[in-house]
Amino acid sequence: MDCLEPDLFQYPDTQGVRSFREEIAKFLTDYARATKELRPEHITVMNGCCAVFATLSTVLCDPGDGYLIPAPHYGGINSKMWLYGGLQPVHVPLSSEVTNEESHPFQLTAEKLEAALQRAEKQGIRVRVLVLINPNNPLGDIYPAQLLKECLEFAHRFEPWRYLRGVQFSIMQCSDEEKPPLLSPVLCGCSEEVACRGLSLAFV
Fold first, then answer.
1. 116 falls within a domain
2. Model confidence at 66, in pLDDT bands (50, 70, 90)?
3. Could you give the angle at which helices 110-122 and 145-156 cross, rounded to 10 degrees?
4. Of 164, 171, 165, 167, whose CA–CA distance to 192 is shortest?
């Protein structure tokens, strides 16, 4: 027992153990090539990405609000967003058929986001969140930085919005001038980002 630190015998900080968050901040600052050093007090550790989605769904929106999400996508998101926040998905269909305007199957574009938003508005759904999982689960597509910026610009036109991103860190690499003034939580799940399948650990 002498090898264990005394604070390990107490309830930890609900935001996550401070020393762990410090290491996460160092790792992400280097790994994501962030333009500014990340601070541990801005990081919260949770029990997997679904727990993060569930928590954020209760604080970013009101029950009955909608969220845009490209489809196909990981099904666990819908159940957690509905169960805890009462939110409904507004799917952005991605087709396997390539049109003249596309370069590859299942291609996401800002125009597809716009079309899905208009459909939701006609149905009386107030869309408040854009969810992007990058790399896409289950497709594995990696969204380029230019597309992510276009998605940010799209979301910024429709305040009050939240832009919820998973796993990928291109937004950290944007300069302050390039970043729209928009609440943009960034999620990172260990299963996807560091290939630790089965490790139910995520931070936002």
1. yes
2. very high
3. 30
4. 167
